[in-house]
């Protein structure tokens, strides 16, 4: 009997080791361990054995049974693992094939500069305003202390629709509208398109973009103007940027200044971009002219303010290294996609 | 304004070089445009005297000269036609250098040794007018008095080394369009004493007379001419000006003409007051009237051109004709000639704006008009006319005639300006002492009287405290102004609703692969023909025309963004870009009659999408329009076919409406329009009215509960006429399913002969769900029956089972 059990065990183990499919394993399981399996039938025939042999044989059968069950289980695991491995192997794809997601497009470089500047000033508590581009001379010139015979009104600079309606030459008109309609404190920037009668070339365009800023409140000083612009320049052009004021003249500010920033390409050492000067002219600015405040119904004895303005294209060109302004308006996708 | 440093030194000691001086003056408000250093490139050129000239044996046009250069005699071969024995010339010796990198070496010309070169004016960069009787294609022959400098360096003798600075003068400072004004700025900027070498008015008092040498003056337009002064010189000898004068004129870019004309230009540069000189014998009736021109009056100006005048212009006239356009240019008829014996110098002050307009109208912007247009001082004019006479006597051009004619209808007013150091410091944010302020203001010739400042006559720009603040801070130093942060009430920096939605739309379209473009707002009126706009279209009637456009392509403001987008697509197509997806967020401009009333026309923001390429079709475009709607959270809209927009394909175009507002028109561009823009067919464009969209947009978000009860799904398939749009089917389903329909997804459209002529099979997956209960089969069956009945009776659908 003992031999027989050993024989079953041996033969079963050999067969388990040789299986090639889960089905074969299942069949073996039935053959040996099933209700009519070989081991089971020995157990069933225990009654025909000597009483003292019964427990011995019984426990031997059970031991073999346990052993075989474990073998089958681990063979099953190995088989499943192998099958999965094979499946995964078969499912291999070429990961270098192109993706299905649409490539992301691009924001126009002019918008990028405007958005960046907006972000900085919004963070400093400024609102962003815009107004009409086809504008009344009242807002563009009269209220800005630019008298009727001022050179800025010349036909050669301004596009006229009628004597009183023009294409705005600056976004200051938006500031006038704000000062007429709103009580101080006023803190705003106005980005937008402006128009000057310049023929298209590498550095000129009849339509370009400006961002102007205005602050009106009590006790606003020229040092505030310089501090604000320095903060803006550091934010926009890098933390090591320095700012320099030079006296200038605008009819709507007094005192007026032009502000230069240390060259953001060479850091002030002198290079092609700054024409070896170390400085790049950035913007015009000044303290709001008392006449302009008065024109808008704000008492210059109580309030003061500052204003500044600069061209977006110039900054975009310097920042991105674009050498021809026409590229910005040609909109070749091969150009646009670089931004 | 160009000036030589040599001339500035008459007003201030200058102990820095040109570059540094330029930097310092830039920082006090006189911005340097360019610095030109002359004469530094001339080396080893000396004064010589020609001893003999003999013909070259081997040449028709060359001569051999023996030239004395003091230490030695040299032989020089030259082809110059004007060389004679005893001429004083400039000799470039062997090994010398001339401008433009010319190097002179000893050589042999047709067998004759030549030890250098005799120079022409051009070779030394000296104007032909610097010395009398020079010719362009010959040697520079110096006046005899230069013989005493034999062998000496020409750069030193002729003072050729000169630094010339060109300043950008701002329009508020006409006083700095003079050497005197710049000299004053220089002295203060360098911290030196301002040396005023000119006499002041008191030292030059001249009696006023009604007429001098028979000449009388009247002003009939006192609103345009504030003062007219004339003084005279007699026994005039017209001739060349002395070298020092021509040199200074040249340094400032003014050509020497003759001594009288040069004096007028010299005084203009020196004192900033444009002058005019005329021959009094050419004045008909010896009577000058400053009057408005006649309607059809004409004048031939000094530059030989006939100018048409009109009655808005001011002229200086005699009893018969205009002799000058006031403030702009003199007439040929009173020009100084070699035979002139009595000259009148005129200094006047005109209305600046009027001079500017006149100069523009006649197309003649002169040195004089560019000064007058900024508004000049009446007082300075008197100094100028006296200075002209002084100079004339000094250089022997004529003899002074006593007295002046002075018609002075509008006296120059000099006001008082409030001076409050605290207010100035308050505006600047500085802490400058009153003493320092007073020092600066006084150095600028301002009188400080207690709480007031009286500006000098030449500073018409000083009107207010803020103007004083600028003067104070200019010399305190803009670079010394500190940086501070605003100390005031906090303000909120927030985006408006429309800014937020615009940003969202831009981001979404970029994420969908579109590139943003930036376009001109002007178009050509013919673009409207190119996009098939009808004759009576609003696009035409609301068009805003620019009066003075650059060209036809920039002549009107667009009423539609379509031409701009098509043009950019066309550029990309011409550059062989195969697949292009663009968008633009920009304005259209519509005059609904406002402009005639002097008011602003309508301006509307439009989101324009433009696509071409094989991956795009109508539905790709529709998806992008839906994206825009979703970004604005506008989810309830109707899409219907649009057949009457002639820019688009009549069968492949839709409009999207919310309420009564058409929010978007989108579709395939009409083949004719594609052809007009050199585009391939299958171009897709959407025009979305952003302002209207914003009106319906929601930014706020509110949570609604996630569904708790299960959904029931049913499919439905039908055969229906081809002409029935699926939109109608959806509406019918919606109508009957009411609130419990969660979704109706079209999953199949199928066409086959078996279905019958002009029929299609359409299948929907419907999903029903209720917010507050589990739906029963009966309920759904009932709803399905109603839907089917509706489809069958109203749309002629035949259910497929």
The computed structural class of chain A is alpha+beta
CATH architectural label of the largest domain in chain A? 2-Layer Sandwich
Provide mean pLDDT of chain B, rounded. Answer: 93
Shape of chain A: rod-shaped
Stretches of chain A where pLDDT is under 50 for at least 5 consecutive residues are none
Average pLDDT of chain A, rounded to a whole number, is 89
**Major sheet size, sense and barrel closure of chain A:** 7 strands, mixed
Number of domains of chain B: 6
CATH class of the largest domain in chain B: Alpha Beta
What is CATH's topology name of the largest domain in chain B? Phenylalanyl-tRNA Synthetase, Chain B, domain 3
**Roughly how many Å apart are the termini of chain A?**
87 Å
Strand content of chain A is: 15-25%
Report the biggest beta sheet of chain B as strand number plus sense, adding barrel if it closes: 7 strands, mixed
- Overall SS class of chain B: alpha+beta
Compute the number of helices of chain B: 21
What is the CATH topology descriptor of the largest domain in chain A? Answer: BirA Bifunctional Protein, domain 2
Provide a count of the helices of chain A. 12
For the record, give the distance between the C-alpha atoms at the N and C termini of chain B, rounded to a whole number: 94 Å
Would you give an account of this structure?
The complex is a heterodimer of chains A (339) and B (801). Chain A is 42% helix and 19% strand. Chain A has 2 domains: 2-90; 109-336, BirA Bifunctional Protein, domain 2 (2-Layer Sandwich). Chain A has helices at residues 2-18, 22-33, 38-44, 53-90, 109-123, 137-140, 172-181, 222-237, 290-295, 312-320, 326-330, 333-336; strands at 127-128, 134-136, 165-167, 186-195, 207-217, 243-250, 253-262, 279-288, 304-311. Chain A is rod-shaped. The model of chain A has no long low-confidence stretch (mean pLDDT 89). Chain A is an alpha+beta fold. In chain A, the strands form 2 sheets. In chain A, strands 1-4-5-9-8-7-6 form a 7-stranded mixed sheet, with helices on both faces. In chain A, strands 2-3 form a two-stranded antiparallel ribbon. With 801 residues, chain B is an alpha+beta fold. Chain B folds into 6 domains: 2-39 and 162-197, Phenylalanyl-tRNA Synthetase, Chain B, domain 1; 43-157, Nucleic acid-binding proteins (OB fold (Dihydrolipoamide Acetyltransferase, E2P), Beta Barrel), CATH 2.40.50.140; 203-407, Phenylalanyl-trna Synthetase, Chain B, domain 3 (Phenylalanyl-tRNA Synthetase, Chain B, domain 3, 3-Layer(bba) Sandwich), CATH 3.50.40.10; 417-476, Phenylalanyl-tRNA Synthetase, Chain B, domain 1; 497-696, BirA Bifunctional Protein, domain 2; 712-799, 2-Layer Sandwich (Alpha-Beta Plaits). Chain B has a 7-stranded mixed sheet, sandwiched between helices. Chain B is elongated. In chain B, 42% of the residues are buried. The chains are: A alpha+beta (339), B alpha+beta (801). Chains A and B meet through α5, β1, β2, β5 and α8 of A and α7, α10, α12, α13 and β27 of B.
